[in-house]
# Entry
Amino acid sequence: MKTVVITGSARGLGFEMAKVFRENNLNIVLSDLNSDNLKKAREELLNIKANGIVEYKVCDVTKTSDIKELIEFVENKFNKIDIWINNAGVNQPDKEIWELEEKDIDTILDVDLKGTIMSSKLAIKSMIKNNGGAIYNVEGYGSNDAKMLGLSIYGTSKRAITYFTEALALECEEKNTNIIVGKLSPGIMITDFITNALGNKEKIELPEKTKKVYNILGDYPDVVAKFLVNGILTNTKNNAKIEWLTNKKAAWRFMTAGFNKRNFFN
Ligand SMILES: NC(=O)c1ccc[n+]([C@@H]2O[C@H](COP(=O)([O-])OP(=O)(O)OC[C@H]3O[C@@H](n4cnc5c(N)ncnc54)[C@H](O)[C@@H]3O)[C@@H](O)[C@H]2O)c1
# Structure
């Protein structure tokens, strides 16, 4: 039975992916910042009838010691990590670069970029020891080089995640590690993330124009999670990109927007 570890999985996409893995009978290790939230998430997962084991461990991905402890926890409990998903992320306050506080810039880069780098580095060491595994990193706005006011530092992180993931995939291949590395591209999801910056620290007021676009292109995270997890479970290739909102799908959504009755913001 395979074991999957997902960072930032007490809510949102991470939690929804955990549910789908559970439905597929994998062992799951949830991890996030807050143990009460993790406990609740675990209980919810256990309500799904399936065969795997569900555990949780607090892990702040900005703390190397937490990541190491999470890995040790998984190794002790399950011997090895089969799939590791770097999902933890924070949004940025809706501000221009020069209006952002340095500490907030640090938080975004530390969670969204360095958290993924350090988690990958340490999880891969464990996977090399155990002769294989898979790592997936979550892309986001900016990964494809798009730019928008108020998302500059987040976009910087996600653009870098794309480069980092491809570089890591290359290194894993050239060193014959038997580890595959891939990107998950979830598009736009209606989660707490879109209205909360820096975790839950600061509210984001979405302009009407943005809400309109989200109503066309957005989806609830359970829909996206199903697609991404099925992609992960069937993927055998290194450097894969599992993409929910392709250009083709986005174009179709805009073309059919007149028939779209979705309103996520009522
Ligand atoms: N919501 C979207 O539209 C969207 C679009 C593209 C990509 N993404 C990406 O998808 C991922 C999940 O986003 P979501 O929408 O589910 O967000 P979310 O805010 O619902 O969930 C993020 C989770 O990460 C956790 N987290 C925050 N800082 C952490 C830290 N230092 N250590 C460990 N966990 C931490 C939070 O506690 C939370 O549970 C993120 O990487 C995000 O950048 C989101």
